[in-house]
Amino acid sequence: MQVDVLLGLQWGDEGKGKIVDYLADQYDIIARFQGGPNAGHTLVIDGQKRVLHTIPSGIFREGKINYIGNGVVIDPVTLLKEIRTLETDGVPVKERLTISKRANLILPTHKILDAASESNKGSSKIGSTLKGIGPTYMDKTGRNGLRIGDIHEGDFLVKYELLKNKHLQLLQIYNFSFELDQIEEEWLDAVEQLREYKQVESVYFINDALKNGKKILAEGAQGSMLDIDFGTYPFVTSSNTISAAVCTGLGISPKHIGEVIGITKAYCTRVGSGPFPSELNNETGELLRKIGAEFGATTGRPRRCGWIDLPALHYACMINGVTKLVITKADVLNTFEEFGVCTHYKYDNKETKELPYDMVNKAIDTTTILFKSWGNIEHNSILPKELSTYIKYLEEYLDVPVTMVSNGPGREQLIELTIKK
Length: 421
Ligand code: GDP
Ligand code: IMO
Ligand code: MG
Prior knowledge:
This protein is α/β, with parallel strands linked by helices. It contains 12 helices and 20 strands. The chain has helices at 16-23, 76-88, 93-96, 108-121, 133-141, 156-171, 181-194, 203-211, 245-250, 283-291, 310-320, 385-398, and strands at 3-8, 29-32, 41-45, 48-52, 65-68, 73-74, 97-100, 104-105, 199-200, 216-219, 257-265, 268-270, 304-306, 308-309, 324-328, 338-347, 350-352, 365-372, 402-406, 414-416. A 10-stranded mixed β-sheet has the order 9-7-5-2-10-1-11-15-19-20, with helices on both faces. Strands 14, 16, 17 and 18 form a 4-stranded mixed β-sheet that branches. It has a two-stranded antiparallel sheet with strand order 3-4. Strand 3 (41-45) and strand 4 (48-52) form a beta hairpin. The protein is globular. The model has no long low-confidence stretch (mean pLDDT 96). It binds guanosine-5'-diphosphate, 6-O-phosphoryl inosine monophosphate and magnesium ion. The site of 6-O-phosphoryl inosine monophosphate has 24 residues, from helix 5.
Protein backbone atom coordinates (compact mmCIF):
# COMPACT_ATOMS: atom_id res chain seq x y z
CA MET A 1 0.00 0.00 0.00
CA GLN A 2 1.04 3.59 -0.38
CA VAL A 3 1.70 6.57 1.82
CA ASP A 4 -0.03 9.75 0.69
CA VAL A 5 1.47 12.99 1.92
CA LEU A 6 -0.25 16.21 2.86
CA LEU A 7 1.88 19.26 3.49
CA GLY A 8 1.97 23.06 3.53
CA LEU A 9 3.49 24.88 0.56
CA GLN A 10 3.96 28.32 2.14
CA TRP A 11 5.28 29.47 5.53
CA GLY A 12 2.95 27.22 7.55
CA ASP A 13 -0.66 27.60 8.77
CA GLU A 14 -2.14 26.79 5.36
CA GLY A 15 -4.99 24.84 6.95
CA LYS A 16 -3.33 21.41 7.06
CA GLY A 17 -5.17 20.32 10.22
CA LYS A 18 -8.59 20.95 8.72
CA ILE A 19 -7.85 19.02 5.52
CA VAL A 20 -6.16 16.09 7.32
CA ASP A 21 -9.17 15.79 9.64
CA TYR A 22 -11.44 15.69 6.59
CA LEU A 23 -9.34 13.15 4.68
CA ALA A 24 -8.51 10.97 7.71
CA ASP A 25 -11.69 8.99 7.16
CA GLN A 26 -10.14 7.47 4.02
CA TYR A 27 -6.98 6.22 5.80
CA ASP A 28 -6.00 3.70 8.49
CA ILE A 29 -3.01 5.57 9.91
CA ILE A 30 -2.42 9.32 10.14
CA ALA A 31 1.25 10.05 10.83
CA ARG A 32 3.28 13.10 11.77
CA PHE A 33 6.83 12.77 10.40
CA GLN A 34 8.71 15.97 11.41
CA GLY A 35 8.52 19.10 13.53
CA GLY A 36 7.08 19.19 17.01
CA PRO A 37 4.91 21.42 19.17
CA ASN A 38 5.91 24.46 17.10
CA ALA A 39 2.97 23.29 14.97
CA GLY A 40 -0.58 24.41 15.72
CA HIS A 41 -3.18 22.61 13.60
CA THR A 42 -6.74 23.86 13.97
CA LEU A 43 -9.83 21.72 13.44
CA VAL A 44 -13.41 22.94 13.69
CA ILE A 45 -15.81 20.04 14.19
CA ASP A 46 -19.51 20.74 14.79
CA GLY A 47 -18.62 24.33 15.57
CA GLN A 48 -16.08 23.34 18.22
CA LYS A 49 -12.51 24.54 17.72
CA ARG A 50 -9.56 22.27 18.63
CA VAL A 51 -5.87 22.96 18.25
CA LEU A 52 -3.38 20.09 17.99
CA HIS A 53 0.38 20.55 18.40
CA THR A 54 1.97 17.09 18.45
CA ILE A 55 -0.94 14.70 17.98
CA PRO A 56 -1.94 13.99 14.36
CA SER A 57 -5.19 15.51 13.10
CA GLY A 58 -6.92 12.14 12.66
CA ILE A 59 -7.42 11.74 16.43
CA PHE A 60 -11.13 12.59 16.28
CA ARG A 61 -11.86 9.78 13.80
CA GLU A 62 -12.97 6.47 15.25
CA GLY A 63 -10.84 3.42 14.57
CA LYS A 64 -7.83 5.30 13.21
CA ILE A 65 -4.24 4.99 14.39
CA ASN A 66 -2.56 8.34 14.98
CA TYR A 67 1.17 7.86 14.81
CA ILE A 68 3.95 10.17 15.94
CA GLY A 69 6.94 9.17 13.82
CA ASN A 70 10.66 9.11 14.58
CA GLY A 71 11.27 12.43 12.81
CA VAL A 72 9.12 14.34 15.31
CA VAL A 73 10.52 16.00 18.44
CA ILE A 74 8.32 15.59 21.51
CA ASP A 75 7.86 17.77 24.57
CA PRO A 76 6.31 15.40 27.14
CA VAL A 77 4.58 18.29 28.95
CA THR A 78 2.85 19.66 25.84
CA LEU A 79 1.95 16.18 24.62
CA LEU A 80 0.49 15.18 27.97
CA LYS A 81 -1.57 18.39 28.18
CA GLU A 82 -2.92 17.70 24.71
CA ILE A 83 -3.75 14.11 25.66
CA ARG A 84 -5.53 15.13 28.87
CA THR A 85 -7.62 17.78 27.09
CA LEU A 86 -8.73 15.23 24.50
CA GLU A 87 -9.47 12.60 27.14
CA THR A 88 -11.59 15.07 29.11
CA ASP A 89 -13.61 15.51 25.92
CA GLY A 90 -14.09 11.75 25.67
CA VAL A 91 -11.53 10.99 22.94
CA PRO A 92 -10.00 7.53 23.63
CA VAL A 93 -6.41 8.62 23.10
CA LYS A 94 -4.90 5.39 24.50
CA GLU A 95 -6.63 3.40 21.76
CA ARG A 96 -5.78 5.80 18.95
CA LEU A 97 -2.25 7.05 19.66
CA THR A 98 1.06 5.29 18.94
CA ILE A 99 4.49 6.89 19.39
CA SER A 100 7.82 5.95 17.84
CA LYS A 101 10.50 5.11 20.41
CA ARG A 102 12.97 6.84 18.10
CA ALA A 103 11.35 10.27 18.41
CA ASN A 104 13.68 12.71 20.21
CA LEU A 105 12.72 14.39 23.47
CA ILE A 106 12.57 18.14 24.02
CA LEU A 107 14.09 18.82 27.47
CA PRO A 108 13.19 21.85 29.61
CA THR A 109 16.74 23.13 29.00
CA HIS A 110 16.20 22.90 25.21
CA LYS A 111 13.40 25.42 25.61
CA ILE A 112 15.58 27.67 27.76
CA LEU A 113 18.38 27.45 25.19
CA ASP A 114 15.90 28.39 22.44
CA ALA A 115 14.82 31.47 24.40
CA ALA A 116 18.41 32.42 25.30
CA SER A 117 19.56 32.11 21.69
CA GLU A 118 16.67 34.22 20.40
CA SER A 119 17.20 36.87 23.04
CA ASN A 120 20.90 36.96 22.17
CA LYS A 121 20.15 37.52 18.47
CA GLY A 122 18.32 40.77 19.24
CA SER A 123 16.78 42.31 16.13
CA SER A 124 17.95 39.44 13.90
CA LYS A 125 15.97 36.85 15.86
CA ILE A 126 14.23 34.06 13.91
CA GLY A 127 10.91 34.57 15.67
CA SER A 128 11.03 30.98 16.97
CA THR A 129 7.96 29.61 18.72
CA LEU A 130 10.32 29.02 21.70
CA LYS A 131 9.26 25.37 21.95
CA GLY A 132 12.88 24.17 21.96
CA ILE A 133 12.79 22.89 18.37
CA GLY A 134 16.19 24.18 17.18
CA PRO A 135 18.24 23.04 20.20
CA THR A 136 16.55 19.59 20.18
CA TYR A 137 17.31 18.94 16.50
CA MET A 138 20.86 20.21 17.16
CA ASP A 139 21.30 17.56 19.85
CA LYS A 140 19.73 14.94 17.59
CA THR A 141 22.15 15.58 14.71
CA GLY A 142 24.97 16.17 17.20
CA ARG A 143 24.23 12.63 18.49
CA ASN A 144 23.55 13.78 22.04
CA GLY A 145 19.76 13.54 22.12
CA LEU A 146 17.46 11.55 24.35
CA ARG A 147 14.68 9.55 22.75
CA ILE A 148 11.25 8.40 23.85
CA GLY A 149 12.53 4.80 24.05
CA ASP A 150 15.14 5.89 26.61
CA ILE A 151 12.48 6.57 29.22
CA HIS A 152 12.07 2.81 29.69
CA GLU A 153 15.77 2.26 30.36
CA GLY A 154 17.28 2.05 33.84
CA ASP A 155 19.85 4.75 33.14
CA PHE A 156 17.36 7.33 31.82
CA LEU A 157 17.85 9.77 34.69
CA VAL A 158 21.63 9.50 34.42
CA LYS A 159 21.45 10.34 30.69
CA TYR A 160 19.02 13.16 31.42
CA GLU A 161 21.31 14.73 34.04
CA LEU A 162 24.27 14.47 31.68
CA LEU A 163 22.49 16.31 28.88
CA LYS A 164 20.94 18.84 31.23
CA ASN A 165 24.33 19.68 32.71
CA LYS A 166 25.78 20.14 29.25
CA HIS A 167 22.96 22.59 28.52
CA LEU A 168 23.58 24.44 31.79
CA GLN A 169 27.20 24.89 30.77
CA LEU A 170 26.15 26.16 27.36
CA LEU A 171 23.74 28.60 28.96
CA GLN A 172 26.64 30.30 30.70
CA ILE A 173 27.64 31.91 27.39
CA TYR A 174 24.34 33.79 27.38
CA ASN A 175 23.41 36.54 29.76
CA PHE A 176 20.01 34.97 30.31
CA SER A 177 18.18 34.34 33.56
CA PHE A 178 15.91 31.34 33.96
CA GLU A 179 14.15 29.18 36.50
CA LEU A 180 14.50 25.42 36.02
CA ASP A 181 13.25 23.62 39.15
CA GLN A 182 9.51 23.79 38.61
CA ILE A 183 9.50 23.07 34.86
CA GLU A 184 11.91 20.20 35.41
CA GLU A 185 9.59 18.63 37.98
CA GLU A 186 6.64 19.01 35.62
CA TRP A 187 8.67 17.48 32.77
CA LEU A 188 9.80 14.44 34.77
CA ASP A 189 6.24 13.88 35.92
CA ALA A 190 4.96 14.05 32.33
CA VAL A 191 7.64 11.56 31.22
CA GLU A 192 6.38 9.16 33.89
CA GLN A 193 2.76 9.50 32.74
CA LEU A 194 3.64 9.04 29.06
CA ARG A 195 4.85 5.50 29.77
CA GLU A 196 1.21 4.42 29.68
CA TYR A 197 0.83 5.33 26.02
CA LYS A 198 1.71 2.92 23.24
CA GLN A 199 5.31 3.19 22.11
CA VAL A 200 6.76 1.09 19.32
CA GLU A 201 10.12 0.29 17.79
CA SER A 202 8.57 1.92 14.71
CA VAL A 203 10.40 0.69 11.58
CA TYR A 204 8.62 -2.68 11.71
CA PHE A 205 5.41 -1.07 12.91
CA ILE A 206 5.08 1.15 9.84
CA ASN A 207 6.44 -1.32 7.28
CA ASP A 208 4.27 -4.17 8.58
CA ALA A 209 1.27 -1.85 8.32
CA LEU A 210 2.11 -1.18 4.67
CA LYS A 211 2.62 -4.89 3.99
CA ASN A 212 -0.78 -5.57 5.54
CA GLY A 213 -2.50 -3.15 3.18
CA LYS A 214 -2.99 -0.24 5.56
CA LYS A 215 -3.43 3.18 3.99
CA ILE A 216 -1.27 5.91 5.53
CA LEU A 217 -1.63 9.68 5.37
CA ALA A 218 1.53 11.58 6.36
CA GLU A 219 0.67 14.98 7.88
CA GLY A 220 3.26 17.70 7.38
CA ALA A 221 3.93 20.46 9.87
CA GLN A 222 5.21 23.98 9.08
CA GLY A 223 5.56 24.66 5.34
CA SER A 224 8.03 24.22 2.50
CA MET A 225 9.32 27.80 2.76
CA LEU A 226 10.33 27.00 6.37
CA ASP A 227 12.33 23.91 5.32
CA ILE A 228 15.85 23.85 6.80
CA ASP A 229 17.46 23.29 3.36
CA PHE A 230 15.04 24.90 0.92
CA GLY A 231 13.30 27.61 2.91
CA THR A 232 14.28 31.23 3.48
CA TYR A 233 17.40 30.29 5.48
CA PRO A 234 18.19 31.16 8.25
CA PHE A 235 14.58 32.23 8.86
CA VAL A 236 13.34 28.64 8.85
CA THR A 237 12.57 25.83 11.26
CA SER A 238 15.12 23.10 12.08
CA SER A 239 13.64 20.16 10.17
CA ASN A 240 13.05 19.19 6.56
CA THR A 241 9.39 19.91 5.99
CA ILE A 242 9.13 18.65 2.40
CA SER A 243 7.83 15.34 1.04
CA ALA A 244 11.30 13.73 1.06
CA ALA A 245 11.25 13.96 4.86
CA VAL A 246 8.38 11.46 5.00
CA CYS A 247 10.82 8.64 4.20
CA THR A 248 13.33 9.55 6.92
CA GLY A 249 10.67 10.71 9.38
CA LEU A 250 8.72 7.45 9.23
CA GLY A 251 11.31 4.90 8.09
CA ILE A 252 9.78 3.98 4.72
CA SER A 253 11.17 3.64 1.21
CA PRO A 254 10.49 6.34 -1.44
CA LYS A 255 8.77 3.70 -3.56
CA HIS A 256 5.83 3.80 -1.14
CA ILE A 257 5.08 7.50 -1.64
CA GLY A 258 1.79 7.97 -3.49
CA GLU A 259 -0.07 11.26 -3.84
CA VAL A 260 1.58 14.44 -2.61
CA ILE A 261 -1.20 16.82 -1.64
CA GLY A 262 0.04 20.39 -1.31
CA ILE A 263 -1.92 23.06 0.54
CA THR A 264 -1.87 26.78 -0.03
CA LYS A 265 -4.00 29.61 1.20
CA ALA A 266 -5.71 31.65 -1.52
CA TYR A 267 -3.40 34.42 -0.27
CA CYS A 268 -0.28 34.17 1.89
CA THR A 269 0.80 34.56 5.52
CA ARG A 270 3.93 34.26 7.58
CA VAL A 271 4.47 34.36 11.34
CA GLY A 272 7.91 35.23 12.68
CA SER A 273 10.75 37.06 10.95
CA GLY A 274 12.19 36.63 7.47
CA PRO A 275 11.60 37.40 3.80
CA PHE A 276 8.05 37.69 2.47
CA PRO A 277 8.21 39.41 -0.96
CA SER A 278 4.42 39.68 -1.50
CA GLU A 279 3.72 41.01 2.02
CA LEU A 280 1.21 43.86 2.27
CA ASN A 281 2.39 46.33 4.89
CA ASN A 282 -0.74 48.40 4.53
CA GLU A 283 -4.47 48.51 5.23
CA THR A 284 -5.15 45.66 2.80
CA GLY A 285 -2.75 43.44 4.76
CA GLU A 286 -4.48 44.42 7.98
CA LEU A 287 -7.86 43.64 6.48
CA LEU A 288 -6.64 40.18 5.39
CA ARG A 289 -5.47 39.57 8.96
CA LYS A 290 -8.78 40.69 10.39
CA ILE A 291 -11.09 38.84 7.98
CA GLY A 292 -8.88 35.74 7.89
CA ALA A 293 -8.43 35.75 11.72
CA GLU A 294 -4.70 35.48 11.10
CA PHE A 295 -3.25 34.94 14.56
CA GLY A 296 -0.85 32.08 15.36
CA ALA A 297 -2.47 28.88 16.65
CA THR A 298 0.60 28.15 18.83
CA THR A 299 1.80 31.57 19.98
CA GLY A 300 -1.18 33.87 19.27
CA ARG A 301 1.14 36.25 17.39
CA PRO A 302 -0.42 38.28 14.53
CA ARG A 303 0.47 36.73 11.19
CA ARG A 304 1.96 38.89 8.47
CA CYS A 305 -0.33 38.89 5.42
CA GLY A 306 0.10 39.37 1.67
CA TRP A 307 -1.03 38.18 -1.74
CA ILE A 308 -0.35 34.65 -2.95
CA ASP A 309 3.27 34.24 -4.10
CA LEU A 310 3.33 32.11 -7.25
CA PRO A 311 7.12 31.95 -7.79
CA ALA A 312 7.46 30.54 -4.25
CA LEU A 313 4.48 28.23 -4.75
CA HIS A 314 5.88 26.92 -8.03
CA TYR A 315 9.21 26.26 -6.29
CA ALA A 316 7.41 24.40 -3.48
CA CYS A 317 5.38 22.28 -5.93
CA MET A 318 8.64 21.38 -7.68
CA ILE A 319 10.64 20.26 -4.62
CA ASN A 320 7.70 18.31 -3.18
CA GLY A 321 6.47 16.70 -6.41
CA VAL A 322 2.95 17.91 -5.65
CA THR A 323 0.29 15.88 -7.49
CA LYS A 324 -2.81 17.60 -6.09
CA LEU A 325 -3.37 21.12 -4.86
CA VAL A 326 -5.77 22.24 -2.13
CA ILE A 327 -6.69 25.91 -1.77
CA THR A 328 -7.92 27.12 1.60
CA LYS A 329 -9.49 30.36 2.81
CA ALA A 330 -11.16 31.12 -0.52
CA ASP A 331 -13.97 32.75 1.52
CA VAL A 332 -11.57 35.36 2.94
CA LEU A 333 -11.00 36.89 -0.50
CA ASN A 334 -14.76 37.55 -0.81
CA THR A 335 -14.25 40.73 1.17
CA PHE A 336 -12.25 42.23 -1.65
CA GLU A 337 -13.71 43.25 -4.98
CA GLU A 338 -10.33 42.57 -6.53
CA PHE A 339 -7.31 40.77 -5.13
CA GLY A 340 -3.66 40.49 -6.16
CA VAL A 341 -1.56 37.57 -7.37
CA CYS A 342 2.24 37.84 -7.36
CA THR A 343 3.41 36.30 -10.64
CA HIS A 344 7.09 37.32 -10.80
CA TYR A 345 9.96 38.51 -8.66
CA LYS A 346 12.09 41.46 -9.76
CA TYR A 347 15.73 41.61 -8.66
CA ASP A 348 19.14 42.19 -10.31
CA ASN A 349 17.38 44.19 -13.05
CA LYS A 350 15.38 41.21 -14.26
CA GLU A 351 11.84 39.88 -13.94
CA THR A 352 11.83 36.19 -13.15
CA LYS A 353 9.80 33.29 -11.75
CA GLU A 354 12.91 31.94 -10.00
CA LEU A 355 13.79 32.46 -6.36
CA PRO A 356 17.27 33.87 -5.68
CA TYR A 357 19.80 31.93 -3.59
CA ASP A 358 19.67 34.50 -0.83
CA MET A 359 16.21 35.87 -0.23
CA VAL A 360 17.25 37.64 2.96
CA ASN A 361 19.73 40.18 1.66
CA LYS A 362 18.31 40.60 -1.84
CA ALA A 363 15.86 43.44 -2.42
CA ILE A 364 12.98 41.68 -4.17
CA ASP A 365 10.20 43.61 -5.86
CA THR A 366 7.14 41.81 -7.24
CA THR A 367 4.87 41.87 -10.30
CA THR A 368 1.24 41.64 -9.22
CA ILE A 369 -1.81 41.10 -11.40
CA LEU A 370 -5.40 41.58 -10.24
CA PHE A 371 -8.27 39.11 -10.23
CA LYS A 372 -11.95 39.73 -9.56
CA SER A 373 -13.40 38.18 -6.42
CA TRP A 374 -16.51 35.98 -6.36
CA GLY A 375 -18.84 36.96 -3.53
CA ASN A 376 -20.35 34.18 -1.45
CA ILE A 377 -20.06 30.57 -2.57
CA GLU A 378 -23.68 29.56 -2.15
CA HIS A 379 -23.74 26.07 -3.50
CA ASN A 380 -21.05 23.55 -2.64
CA SER A 381 -20.86 22.02 -6.10
CA ILE A 382 -21.12 25.03 -8.37
CA LEU A 383 -18.08 27.29 -8.43
CA PRO A 384 -18.60 30.98 -9.14
CA LYS A 385 -17.15 31.95 -12.54
CA GLU A 386 -14.50 34.24 -11.01
CA LEU A 387 -13.27 31.49 -8.67
CA SER A 388 -13.02 29.06 -11.61
CA THR A 389 -10.95 31.63 -13.51
CA TYR A 390 -8.58 31.99 -10.54
CA ILE A 391 -8.24 28.21 -10.13
CA LYS A 392 -7.57 27.72 -13.84
CA TYR A 393 -4.83 30.35 -13.70
CA LEU A 394 -3.18 28.61 -10.73
CA GLU A 395 -3.39 25.20 -12.41
CA GLU A 396 -1.74 26.51 -15.56
CA TYR A 397 0.99 28.42 -13.72
CA LEU A 398 1.81 25.54 -11.37
CA ASP A 399 0.99 22.63 -13.67
CA VAL A 400 -0.86 20.85 -10.86
CA PRO A 401 -4.61 20.15 -10.65
CA VAL A 402 -6.63 21.82 -7.89
CA THR A 403 -8.70 19.10 -6.22
CA MET A 404 -10.27 20.91 -3.27
CA VAL A 405 -11.27 24.40 -2.29
CA SER A 406 -11.93 25.22 1.36
CA ASN A 407 -14.38 28.03 2.03
CA GLY A 408 -14.60 28.19 5.81
CA PRO A 409 -12.94 26.71 8.91
CA GLY A 410 -15.57 23.97 9.47
CA ARG A 411 -14.97 20.33 8.54
CA GLU A 412 -17.78 20.40 5.96
CA GLN A 413 -16.89 23.76 4.39
CA LEU A 414 -15.08 22.17 1.50
CA ILE A 415 -15.65 21.76 -2.22
CA GLU A 416 -14.16 18.71 -3.93
CA LEU A 417 -13.34 19.17 -7.61
CA THR A 418 -13.03 16.34 -10.06
CA ILE A 419 -9.78 16.12 -11.98
CA LYS A 420 -10.25 16.55 -15.73
CA LYS A 421 -8.11 13.95 -17.50
P1 GDP B 1 -2.28 24.55 9.94
O1 GDP B 1 -1.15 24.84 10.87
O2 GDP B 1 -1.82 24.44 8.52
O3 GDP B 1 -3.11 23.38 10.35
O4 GDP B 1 -3.23 25.84 9.98
P2 GDP B 1 -3.66 26.66 11.30
O5 GDP B 1 -4.65 25.87 12.04
O6 GDP B 1 -2.48 27.15 12.03
O7 GDP B 1 -4.31 27.95 10.63
C1 GDP B 1 -5.36 27.86 9.73
C2 GDP B 1 -6.52 28.69 10.27
O8 GDP B 1 -7.47 28.89 9.25
C3 GDP B 1 -7.29 27.99 11.37
O9 GDP B 1 -7.80 28.97 12.24
C4 GDP B 1 -8.42 27.28 10.64
O10 GDP B 1 -9.56 27.06 11.45
C5 GDP B 1 -8.71 28.29 9.57
N1 GDP B 1 -9.21 27.76 8.27
C6 GDP B 1 -8.86 26.64 7.62
N2 GDP B 1 -9.45 26.59 6.40
C7 GDP B 1 -10.19 27.72 6.30
C8 GDP B 1 -11.01 28.27 5.28
O11 GDP B 1 -11.18 27.74 4.20
N3 GDP B 1 -11.61 29.49 5.55
C9 GDP B 1 -11.44 30.14 6.73
N4 GDP B 1 -12.06 31.30 6.89
N5 GDP B 1 -10.67 29.65 7.71
C10 GDP B 1 -10.05 28.46 7.49
P1 IMO C 1 2.21 24.77 11.46
O1 IMO C 1 2.44 23.28 11.44
C1 IMO C 1 3.81 28.79 11.06
C2 IMO C 1 7.97 29.44 12.29
C3 IMO C 1 8.16 30.32 13.51
C4 IMO C 1 9.53 30.91 13.18
C5 IMO C 1 10.26 29.76 12.51
C6 IMO C 1 11.16 28.96 13.43
O2 IMO C 1 1.16 25.20 12.40
O3 IMO C 1 2.02 25.28 10.08
P2 IMO C 1 10.74 27.21 15.40
O4 IMO C 1 9.86 27.28 16.61
O5 IMO C 1 10.43 26.09 14.48
O6 IMO C 1 12.19 27.27 15.72
O7 IMO C 1 10.44 28.59 14.60
O8 IMO C 1 9.25 28.91 11.98
N1 IMO C 1 7.05 28.29 12.51
C7 IMO C 1 5.80 28.23 12.04
N2 IMO C 1 5.07 29.16 11.40
N3 IMO C 1 3.30 27.57 11.31
C8 IMO C 1 4.03 26.62 11.93
O9 IMO C 1 3.59 25.36 12.08
C9 IMO C 1 5.33 26.94 12.36
N4 IMO C 1 6.30 26.28 13.03
C10 IMO C 1 7.35 27.11 13.09
O10 IMO C 1 7.17 31.30 13.61
O11 IMO C 1 9.38 31.95 12.24
MG1 MG D 1 -0.59 26.26 12.31
